Amino acid sequence: QVQLVESGGGLVQPGGSLRLSCAASGNIFSIYSMGWYRQAPGKQRELVAVIFSGGSTVYADSVKGRFTISRDNAKNTVYLQMNSLRPEDTAVYHCNCDYGFISWGQGTQVTVSS
Question: Which of 9, 36, 57, 106 is the most buried (most CB within 10 A)?
Answer without folding.
Answer: 36
